[in-house]
Amino acid sequence: YRDNVALFEQEIVATNSESFYIPEGYRYIRQITLDYPKEATQAAKAQEKKLTSAMTALGTAFQKLAVAATQVEDLNELKDLRAEYDSANETALACREACLAKMQEKSEPLLRETFDAIEERFAAGIDFKSLIETYSTDKTKQNLSGNGYLFHPDSTTWPDAFKEAAMALENPGDISKPVYSETGIHILYFAAEAPAGDHVLTEEEREQLNASTLQYYQTERLLELCDTWKADYEIETHPELLSD
């Protein structure tokens, strides 16, 4: 995964798989996630309807472009379809921004008291994990008891606003202002820098790996023995004893 963030994101981050190597530039992020108030979602109904329509148009434009790409040898012939797709994409992005802007406009005053309470309690020394337990809808193991979410500035997983806020946190222990995304409102916490390079195994991890490796080869050997034993069987079939 050296210098290949895209592959690391695809095979490790997206599947929450174990890795013994982390590329340069990663950090661990925890978050408090808040749902949008009903008043905000109601106020953004018109923008949301336009966004749904724009996303449908974008999907149609992409499908037409993808089908045509398999039928021509000269990609210049796709110029008009590509322009149609680009236009649909710009429209969808504009509709998404308008929808988020309306949601933020309505949510800000409704959640101001909650935002201030989180900031004040954190400044008073309350552990961020405790604040997650109190306020957040995201109570996953990774967010609470793990190291946090692996984050990289070149990630394609997180929304742009999330990435900008996460990278604006200068030091471990910093928290962000509220970040608005399609999935909710996030307050980010810079938990720690992720150690880049090869992971140095602890004694406990080494013992666990040795135990799992031993179990794997024991199972493989047992299956081999079972196949050997089966080869020695003399199986006779008596159809007359079988019922109709």
Q: How would you sum up this structure, described in words?
A:
The chain is 55% helix and 11% strand. The model has no long low-confidence stretch (mean pLDDT 90). The protein is α+β, with helices and mostly antiparallel strands and 244 residues long. The protein contains 8 helices and 6 strands. Helix 3 (45-69) crosses helix 4 (79-123). The protein has a 4-stranded antiparallel sheet, with helices on both faces. The protein has a two-stranded antiparallel ribbon with strand order 1-6. Strand 4 (179-181) and strand 5 form a beta hairpin. The longest helix has 45 residues, at 79-123. The chain has helices spanning 5-13, 38-43, 45-69, 79-123, 128-135, 141-144, 160-168, 203-231, and strands spanning 21-22, 27-34, 149-151, 179-181, 184-193, 197-198.
Q: Would you report the number of β strands?
A: 6
Shape field: extended
From the alpha carbons, calculate the radius of gyration and give it in angstroms.
27 Å
Task: State the separation between the terminal residues, measured CA to CA.
Answer: 60 Å
Look at the structure and give the mean pLDDT: 90
Low-confidence stretches: none
Q: What is the succession of H and E elements?
A: HEEHHHHHEHEEEH
Q: How is the largest sheet built, in terms of strand order? A: 3-2-5-4
Please summarize the sheet with the most strands. Answer: 4 strands, antiparallel
Per DSSP, the total helix count is 8
Report the helical percentage.
55-70%
Please state roughly what percent of the residues sit in beta strands, choosing from under 5%, 5-15%, 15-25%, 25-35%, 35-45% or over 45%. Answer: 5-15%
